[in-house]
């Protein structure tokens, strides 16, 4: 059935009354949770600050921020807009509020910790579900819950902790092999940049002497073989080969003498 058919006789969308009642109950629950959290916050902060007014304001801060984000999330949900950022901020406020509550509890007693932490956590869960239901009621879609992000982060942290524990146990049982394996894993995960390979020796060839350079230049010269011009060519090519003109001239004459007629 389309959404236009899901209407009651009064013209309201089906289920809207129940959702409105849930929203009002959320307000009552929020008021009760605010009082519970405020009491724990104030007891914790006052022991540190010893200032009445400042302790009252700071004790109210996190819960009031949670109320602000709750109203924003509800308003966006009723307008059919995404409220995921506000829902995540609600969870952050709830986590900080729980931490402050637990700080006032007897951490050696699980019952005491649960009694102090349950109020903000339960409120955050109810807020998230009310926002999700209102959004589904308005848009008929399912926005991912902010709790799914927390769940994925917790699962990733649990996997990492399990791996660390497993490798610690393996190191205790077989230290040398574990150390070598971890070293190889780190080296494989972070290879060094490749260095350029040196050119092959055959490609470079043997080092050339100044005489060889001079003779190569002379053999490519247009006056090669003309003995009458050898002196002038030697003076011309000597600087290119790094030789004195007289030495270059001797090399050229020797080349001409060895040249077959």
- The percent range for strand residues is under 5%
Round the mean pLDDT to the nearest integer and report it.
76
- Derived structural class: mainly alpha
Low-confidence stretches: 1-5
Termini gap: 110 Å
N-to-C SSE string, H for helix and E for strand = HHHHHHHHHH
Q: What best-fitting shape do the alpha-carbon axes yield?
A: elongated
- Count of helical regions: 10
Task: Please give the domain count.
Answer: 2
Radius of gyration: 43 Å
Instruction: Please provide the count of β strands.
Output: 0
- Quaternary state reads single chain
Largest sheet: none
How much helix is in the residues?
over 70%
What does this structure look like?
The protein has 261 residues and is mostly helical. It folds into two domains: 12-152, no CATH class; 206-258. Helices cover 74% and strands 0% of the residues. The protein is built from ten helices and no strands. α1 crosses α3 and α9 (230-241) crosses α10 (245-258). The chain is elongated and about 120 Å long. It starts with 15 loop residues before the first helix and ends with a helix. Residues 1-5 have low confidence and may be disordered.
